[in-house]
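Issue: ligand-bound run for zinc ion - logging full I/O for the record.

Environment: standard queue, default settings, no custom constraints.

Inputs:
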Amino acid sequence: MIGRPPVAPAERFWPKVSRGADNECWEWLAYRDRDGYGQFNDGTTQTSAHRFAYRLLVGAIPRELVIDHLCENRGCVNPAHMELVPPRVNALRGSRTLAAIAEAKTHCVHGHRFSPENTGRDGRGARVCRACRRVNSRRWYERQRAERLRPLAQG
Ligand SMILES: [Zn+2]
Ligand SMILES: [Zn+2]
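Outputs:
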């Protein structure tokens, strides 16, 4: 055989993800765009990392629908945290109705209670779970540190 077979996009994808338990956020570790969404080149086109993950694990995304992150974490590529919605609904997020629905939830997608101490706000005024944010940033930093230490450990 001449040369090596090309590496399948899925094989290149997962090393860029901090994949936790099924109900946790799966943090994208590679390049993110200005809006905070992970970017991945599937070999043909540059695509959003979360869209790639959704197609890989769930299936095709209908043309008329967009993906909404239920966990409010744009760097998350866990399809369990995604919902397909019409673009208009996504754009209206933050409107009174949808905000009211979000506010009515007593727990985050990971089961942490939205107590006053555990509730923060993101840039758009949406509610965020502080426990989740702590876990996510800690995991990110640990991963970054591991990346930095690796060459030393090997050398
Ligand atoms: Zn998530
Ligand atoms: Zn949480």
